[in-house]
From TrEMBL, chain A:
It holds the Pfam family Longin. The keyword DNA-binding does not apply. This is V-SNARE coiled-coil homology domain-containing protein. It is found in: Endomembrane system. Belongs to the synaptobrevin family. Transmembrane segments: none annotated. Residues 7-133 form the Longin domain. Residues 137-197 form the V-SNARE coiled-coil homology domain. Keywords: Coiled coil, Lipoprotein, Membrane, Methylation, Palmitate, Prenylation. GO terms for cellular component: Golgi apparatus. The lineage of its organism: Eukaryota, Fungi, Dikarya, Basidiomycota, Agaricomycotina.
From TrEMBL, chain B:
It is found in: Membrane. This is t-SNARE coiled-coil homology domain-containing protein. Residues 240-302 form the T-SNARE coiled-coil homology domain. The chain crosses the membrane at residues 311-330. SUPFAM superfamilies: t-snare proteins. GO terms for molecular function: SNAP receptor activity; SNARE binding. Residues 21-50, 173-193 are annotated as: Disordered. InterPro entries: SNARE, Syntaxin, Syntaxin-5_N, T_SNARE_dom. It is a single-pass type IV membrane protein. Keywords: Coiled coil, Membrane, Transmembrane, Transmembrane helix, Transport. GO terms for cellular component: Golgi membrane; SNARE complex. GO terms for biological process: endoplasmic reticulum to Golgi vesicle-mediated transport; intracellular protein transport; vesicle docking; vesicle fusion.
Length: 197, 331
């Protein structure tokens, strides 16, 4: 499950302008990286242009999937290109977060000059979301809950064993109590009959 | 089974236990409880009655909630198509939920109160502590059973709602079924432009990749040029899909949490059951200790009597020898 590229574009009247992007092409051989990067940029642009406002789309092509979300806010759209295994829902939540972050951190005046935009959070998000199980809230909570459930099952087994031990203890203490009572009675009876012989 | 009046036996048991117990502190504590006129006992007597007051109010709340729950269960069981009273049911559900939360809070407060009491006292009134703890456990288990019943009733209600929805759909041909048809035809039309001539030229560098992106761009173009209205439907489906997938994920989390809660309550139940066994073991061991110490006492007495009674035995032996001698002499 890998994220390849994350990009934010400004979509106006069917044409998209790339504002910021972050890419992780380490899985490709060195010579392919250039062309792959350009292809991905082009794909992001095309897909963003063809997505209506407020719409989410997932487009699959060969072994790559592009998830695009056109936020409508400030005509922004975010695209993430991943491999096929990446779960869809966290991808969209990532896009949503990215757009929100971008809107708050980058001032609108720099948007006309894309090369001046400095948005390091994109790279951070890319790195963080490589493992969606950890990064996405819902999945993390689910994983923790499953872990807790396993632990609880083990605990219940332990408690059952404790119950068995307690039962055996009860029986033994019962027997011991009866025996000590007999012991006491015997000792007492020895005292009472004075004529021992 | 005929009703027997065993009050006298109970009173006799209480008397015997009281006489047998060597607990001067306990008797003193009891007196203090019974006579709250003592200045030192005022807070204790007040705290005891406060505890019983809180416990009583909680018990009353629980019983009233159980009544409401029964009414809700009856309402939820109805299977009529038209006379369903959703407003009433949802109101009742909300009220019951609030009541349960309230009782939970009260019970938590009561438990904290009991703990504070236990921390404050030094040794007297162990039975009162035990009684308080038992009452708290009892109330907790009652509340647990009430919430279980509540959950069951809610499940029944959701099932019934689903059934009624299915039945209404049978009778009424809804527009949603008509809307489901277009998307399959959409995919057919999608396939067609895929095989058409790629008339879309792109200037790009990576040649091999361009081919695929070519077809991809074509797909989007053809789809847009084609069915605009149905396309919108698919847009909405996409939105719906995302939102639905989110809601299913969250629902699964919710059910997991509910399961966990269930497991926790089972755990608490088992531990409570085992506590009784532990108490029996405890009682047995004290009995054993008593018996052994008593037996040791007896043996010591015996030993003492043996070592001092040799005088008696010499006399007995002397008498036997005398008899023996007499027999021999007679013969």
């Amino acid at each position: 499950m890998k994220l390849y590229q994350l990009s934010i574009l400004e979509v106006t009247d069917g044409s998209a302008k790339l504002l910021s992007s972050a890419a992780d092409l380490s899985s490709f051989s060195f010579y392919q990286r250039g062309s792959v990067g350009e292809f991905m940029t082009f794909m992001a642009k095309t897909v963003a242009e063809r997505t209506a406002v407020g719409q989410r789309q997932s487009v699959q092509e060969n072994s790559y999937t592009a998830h695009v979300y056109n936020a409508g806010r400030e005509n922004l759209a975010a695209v993430v290109i991943t491999d096929e295994e990446y779960p869809v829902r966290p991808a969209f939540s990532l896009l949503q977060k990215l757009i929100d972050d971008f809107v708050t951190s980058v001032p609108k005046t720099t948007w006309s000059n894309p090369s001046s935009i400095d948005f390091p959070a994109a790279k951070a998000y890319l790195a963080k979301y490589q493992d969606p199980k950890q990064a996405d809230q819902i999945m993390r909570v689910q994983a923790e809950l499953d872990e807790t459930k396993i632990i609880l099952h083990k605990t219940i087994e332990g408690v059952l064993q404790r119950g068995e031990h307690l039962d055996s203890l009860v029986e033994r203490s019962n027997a011991l109590s009866a025996q000590s009572k007999m012991f006491y009675k015997t000792a007492k009876s020895q005292n009472s009959c004075c004529v021992v012989m | 089974m005929p009703v027997q009046d065993r009050t006298n036996e109970f009173k006799a048991c209480v008397e015997s236990i009281r006489n047998r117990s060597s607990y001067p502190a306990r008797g003193g504590a009891k007196d203090r409880l019974l006579q709250p006129s003592n200045g030192h006992a005022k807070p204790k007597g007040g705290s005891k009655s406060e505890f019983s007051r809180m416990a009583m109010s909680i018990g009353k709340d629980i019983s009233s909630t159980t009544l409401k729950l029964q009414k809700l269960a009856q309402l939820a069981k109805r299977k009529t198509l038209f006379d369903d009273r959703p407003v009433e049911i949802s109101e009742l559900t909300f009220i019951i939920k609030q009541d349960i939360a309230n009782i939970n809070k009260q019970l938590a407060g009561l438990q904290a109160h009991v703990k504070a009491q236990q921390a404050g006292k030094t040794g007297g009134g162990k039975q009162v502590e035990e009684h308080n703890a038992n009452v708290v456990t009892l109330l907790q288990s009652k509340l647990m059973s009430t919430s279980m019943t509540f959950k069951d009733v809610l499940e029944i209600r959701t099932q019934n709602m689903k059934e009624t929805k299915d039945r209404t759909e049978q009778f009424v041909h809804s527009t949603s079924s008509a809307a489901i048809q277009p998307p399959p035809s959409n995919s057919l039309l999608f396939n067609k432009p895929r095989n058409d001539d790629p008339r879309y030229n792109i200037q790009n560098k990576g040649k091999a990749r361009v081919q695929d992106s070519d077809l991809l761009a074509l797909d989007m173009v053809a789809a847009e040029e084609g069915q605009g209205g149905l396309q919108e439907l698919q847009y909405m489906d996409n939105q719906q899909d995302y939102i639905q997938s989110r809601s299913t994920a969250i629902e699964s989390i919710e059910s997991t949490i509910a399961e966990l809660g269930n497991i926790f309550s089972q755990l608490a139940h088992m531990v409570a059951e085992q506590r009784e066994t532990v108490q029996r073991i405890d009682a047995d061991t004290t009995d054993i200790a008593d018996n052994i110490s008593g037996a040791q006492r007896e043996l010591l007495k015996y030993y003492a009597s043996i070592s001092s009674n040799r005088w008696l035995m010499i006399k007995v032996f002397g008498a036997i020898i005398v008899m023996f001698l007499i027999f021999v002499l007679v013969n």
